[in-house]
Automatic annotation (TrEMBL):
Gene Ontology MF annotations: chromate transmembrane transporter activity
Name of the protein in its database record: Chromate transporter
Lineage, top ranks: Bacteria, Bacillati, Bacillota, Tissierellia, Tissierellales
Membrane topology of the entry: Multi-pass membrane protein
Family per similarity comment: Belongs to the chromate ion transporter (CHR) (TC 2.A.51) family.
Amino acid sequence: MELLNLFLSFLKIGAFTFGGGYAMIPLIEKEAVEIHGWLTTKEFIDILAVVEMTPGPIAINSATFLGYKVGGVLGSVLATTAVVLPSIIVIILIAHFLWKFKNSPYVDWAFKGIRPVVLGLIVSASISVAKNAFIDFKSVIIGGVLFYLISFKKLHPILAIILAGVAGVLVY
């Protein structure tokens, strides 16, 4: 039954989220932490950190990691399949109808309406992660310095991850 819940949860996440992995994070957190209790909030943040450092799409990596935690290798396969299945179906349908509707103003308007929702989901995920990642003043300082270095000094994200790890070891 747990594997079916895992499959249906990630199928729902894959079907109702636009904007990629970052937009899926709040939905994954809700399913994994709040609804099913597969993870604690701390475990979710830890998995999210690993998922963001691992090559590949965030949604697929999240499904694979969480699926493995819940149901081993079979859980990984089911969760990963479920999260990509809606996209595969939609892409096949879009490819079939693309030429017929490519100049439709309705399609253009729909995508313009979806953009703010995607931004909202990404901001929601950021706030959720920040609430649990900033555990004290030292963590706020580390996060703030790295935000500044990445945003304004164009520090490479991989270097930022390494610096954050070193700072964490030194400070904590």
